[in-house]
Amino acid sequence: MRTLKDVPCGETVKVVKLVGTGPVKRRIMDMGITKGVDVYVRKVAPLGDPIEVTVRGYELSVRKADAEMIQID
């Protein structure tokens, strides 16, 4: 299964599942990243951290460790 970390810039993907638990999963969900939502990857930093995305019209930065917990289709 692919994760958000593997997505190149300029692609839009759909979230299938959040794998994290506890406060990490809560932080991801508080950003509006939930199952079924579309995520557009705007920019990836040179070393891959952070990943800048657009979710529900909001521009967010996601840490690489958090992006590994977001499975996409």
TrEMBL record:
UniProt entry tagged with the keyword Iron: yes
Coiled coil residues, start to end: none
InterPro entries (UniProt xref): Fe-transptr_FeoA-like (IPR007167), FeoA (IPR052713), FeoA_core_dom (IPR038157), Transcriptional_repressor_C (IPR008988)
Gene3D superfamilies: 2.30.30.90
Pfam families in the cross-refs: FeoA
Domain Ferrous iron transporter FeoA-like: 2-73
Keywords, alphabetical: Iron
Name by which UniProt lists this protein: Ferrous iron transport protein A
Organism: Blautia stercoris
